[in-house]
Amino acid sequence: MNKWIYVVEDEPDILELVSLNLERVNFKVKCFENADSFLEMVETKKPDLVILDLMLPDADGFDVCKHLKSDEKTRAIPIIMLTAKGDEIDRILGLELGADDYVTKPFSVKELVARVKAVLRRPLMDVPKDRIELGDGALIIDTERHEVIQDGKRIDLTSTEFKILKLLASKKGLVFSREKILDYLWGNEKIVVDRTIDVHIKHLREKLGEAAKFIKNIRGVGYKLEE
Ligand code: CA
Asked: How far is the CA of 57 from the centre of ligand 1 (A)?
């Protein structure tokens, strides 16, 4: 599938030049002349990579980058910054912003396209492998960090609730019977009844808010996690 690149740049000439050249090598491109329209679009559809100009009419590219990198849902989107200032490079690539690369203006389009390809080839270092996402990032279960994120907010779960969610998430779409969930939680030591699971699921759903819809009850069988 062709990758989506969003280009945010208020200079029409640069915008056209960049988008034409990216399309020529089979990327799908969307252009934005300001930060607002770009951020609005990101909410709806996340791109595979962003080319972001530092100086925008309605915002500072630094702030836009910081915003994307501090939000769980958009953190993993690679960003290449366009900058006129060579001395800003440390800030761009440093911890403060965490952009993935930069190109200094005036730049060669060939060079920029090469950088785009290189960044997309990089493994996503800061995205843990043990990470399950539902609803395009609306619910993130990070089993490595023992964290559940719903719409960018961390949800506090009890250890049992987390285990149940993790089990359901281990095979999306597969129904787990109450018996199976009990086995997983307590093995041979289970002394609780089937209904205990229903109580835990009820609490889990309350805490998950909007994302509760992903947990489905299959009457007479059990539960599953599904988008
Ligand atoms: Ca600009």
From this structure: 7
